[in-house]
Amino acid sequence: MADQLEVAVLGTGIMGAAMARNLCRTGHAVRVWNRTRAKAEPLAADGALVADSPADAVRGAAVVLTMLYDGPAALETMTAAAPGLAPGTVWLQTTTVGPEGLTPLAELADAHGLVFVDSPVLGTKGPAEQGKLTVLGAGPEDARNTVTSVLQAVGERTLWVGDDGASGAATRLKLVCNSWVLTLTHGTAETLALAKGLGVDPMSFLDAVAGGGLDCGYLRVKGAAILQEDYTANFALTTAAKDARLIVAAGAAEGVRLDVAQAGVNRFARAEEQGHGAQDMAATYFASFDT
Length: 291
Hints:
alpha/beta; globular; about 290 residues
């Protein structure tokens, strides 16, 4: 068991709740907060203390972990937490925020004397629950020992890509990785939609590519969700749509035109309009049809 390192987890949605549970199970003293308190309350059964406000959650914590919807949400929450923050507290920023969204977070950390570690994660609900996320980290060397037990509780490996959390190195890598994830998801959904339209048994397609260079784990996972009509959110479509917009914007800022990513943004928007926003991002499948 880990030492009783005090950790505050702000944001207990699909990912944050799983991370908080793993922190509790590995011996950390955990306080949690969520804008909708009902989403945080089940964590009390795992040993977490449910706080009434961000400031209450972070007071006395050695590490603050944020897993919120986007950059503005993280900024608003940590601004509200400011009265409870102490200089030297390590802030693990795990939200996918994009380069623009990262800057005001790093500035807030600097203003309050926090040690800022940009640490977005790769993985969805299953890996989060199993403590098998991949953490992409950028932060000072002397903070890494402090957060080792936290990162080991939530992930199976940490890839350090820089020693300055404000540099955006980890956030930029996260967008590149998510670009690939979303491309695979849309490709799977569109391919199975085409199979339906052409009257092709989707299993024939999956059998045709099995074991070859065209096969991959994500094709199998998202393909199974679509064929079984199980759209339980592992990575909510609305969140994926947000990430897709961040990817397109980041590319545009550097003069990189991302036609496929922009098409993905449009697909997600259609699926959201059809009412699939709270479902898994595999529900981009429905964007291929008028209804």
